[in-house]
């Protein structure tokens, strides 16, 4: 296990901008930061760079059953055992995972929320979902009007996941600044500019310099509301710098909180592969509001193939499921049956299964998933009314506000 009691954020090569050795033995260069993912990611090398531990079979078996855990899509973490022990004992435990509202949510955004719902359903975890509308203003060329449109859309998708409102709190940075900022102000005093620069690179503006304090507040929020307890942050690996900075803050004596644990996941690839699915990719992202025909059209036209150039060659030599995007989607989440996933891979390698047939299967499974999500989304009424049960209560907010007039 890694000794991260001192400085998680300052681990060697924290930027994860991985440059190959001159002889090429380290493979192609890739970049993984909260603001940029490029190249073919070496997930094993990221563990060395980020200082996290690979999940063991025993740990995975202790989690509620879920394909993204069984298949090691979520493959590494920190302090996972503390979280699992609390969940098994029926003690207070929580999950924090959020989204930056910059446009419509797509498949690459939503799967982690369905994982969080599974954990909540099975163990009663508190789930906190922060929306970082301020960060998107600092980091992207977007107006606040555009970000507000995205926030409204994202909130509907989050509500459609079906979290338990009694155990779920959804916060929006600017909407909840009255309770988030006082805590972020406390946190900011324990994050140096040198830590921000070493972890994120040179910030483009003072907003991005301060944002790590806000993000750390997000991750500590369940403990600030419910008291000290194990917290797990399931995220894609590019967001891990936020966890590492927060863990350094949590180690300070002024905060009666435990270091949040992390559950690190691989990216859902873009349709044209190999990087993560993104709205800014050359290939279109599969959005949560896409109907079946739209999903099918995007996959058939844009999904990168691991097959051969023609049918005869494919029948003779087979395809490569490890680089085939349609197969990767099925393996990640959308084919729940493990045996069926293995059969698809074997049939594709043998040449029995053609690329078009594999794409059709992926389109059907994803279409099924999105049909259920869209149905729940479309059944929602007025957003403010639907969101109200998920907001921080007045009692919870009082625990976070300054006690100037107490």
H and E string:
EEEHEHHEHEHEHHEHHHEHEHHHHHHH
Q: Ranges with pLDDT <50 over ≥5 residues?
A: 1-6, 10-27
Would you report the number of β strands? 10
Strand order of the largest sheet: 4-5-10-9-6-7-8
Shape: globular
How would you summarize this macromolecular structure in one to three sentences?
The protein has 406 residues and is α/β, with parallel strands linked by helices. It has helices spanning 43-50, 57-62, 67-70, 80-89, 107-123, 133-139, 144-161, 177-188, 193-200, 206-226, 240-250, 292-302, 311-317, 325-334, 338-350, 355-378, 383-387, 394-400, and strands spanning 17-18, 30-33, 36-38, 53-54, 74-78, 94-96, 126-131, 168-172, 231-236, 261-265.
């Amino acid at each position: 296990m890694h000794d991260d009691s001192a400085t998680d954020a300052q681990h060697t090569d924290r930027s994860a901008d991985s440059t190959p050795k001159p002889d090429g033995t380290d493979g192609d260069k890739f970049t993984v930061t909260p603001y940029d993912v490029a190249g073919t990611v070496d997930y094993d090398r990221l563990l060395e760079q980020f200082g996290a531990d690979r999940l063991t079979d025993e740990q995975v078996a202790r989690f509620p059953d879920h394909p993204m855990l069984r298949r090691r899509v979520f493959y590494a973490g920190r302090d996972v055992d503390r979280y699992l022990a609390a969940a098994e004992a029926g003690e207070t435990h929580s999950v924090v995972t959020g989204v930056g509202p910059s446009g419509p949510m797509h498949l690459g955004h939503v799967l982690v929320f369905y994982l969080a719902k599974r954990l909540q359903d099975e163990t009663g975890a508190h789930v906190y979902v922060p929306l970082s509308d301020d960060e998107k203003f600092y980091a992207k060329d977007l107006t606040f009007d555009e970000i507000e449109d995205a926030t409204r859309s994202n909130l509907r998708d989050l509500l459609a996941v079906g979290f338990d409102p009694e155990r779920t709190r959804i916060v929006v940075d600017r909407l909840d600044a009255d309770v988030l900022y006082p805590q972020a102000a406390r946190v900011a005093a324990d994050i140096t500019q040198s830590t921000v620069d070493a972890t994120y690179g040179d910030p483009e503006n003072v907003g991005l310099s301060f944002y790590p304090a806000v993000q750390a507040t997000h991750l500590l929020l369940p403990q600030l509301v419910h008291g000290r307890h194990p917290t797990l942050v399931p995220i894609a690996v590019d967001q891990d710098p936020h966890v590492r900075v927060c863990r350094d803050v949590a180690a300070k004596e002024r905060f009666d909180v435990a270091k949040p644990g992390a559950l690190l996941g691989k990216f859902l690839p873009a349709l044209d592969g190999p990087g993560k699915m993104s709205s800014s990719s050359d290939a279109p992202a599969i959005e949560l509001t896409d109907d079946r025909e739209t999903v099918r059209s995007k996959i058939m036209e844009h999904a990168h193939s691991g097959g051969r150039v023609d049918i005869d060659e494919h029948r003779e030599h087979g395809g490569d499921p490890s680089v085939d995007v349609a197969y990767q989607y099925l393996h990640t989440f959308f084919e729940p049956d493990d045996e069926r996933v293995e059969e698809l891979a074997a049939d594709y390698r043998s040449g029995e299964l053609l690329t078009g047939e594999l794409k059709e299967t992926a389109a059907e499974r994803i279409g099924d998933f999105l049909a259920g999500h869209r149905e729940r989304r479309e059944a929602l009424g007025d957003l403010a009314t639907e969101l109200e049960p998920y907001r921080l209560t007045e009692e919870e907010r009082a625990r976070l506000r300054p006690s100037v007039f107490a």
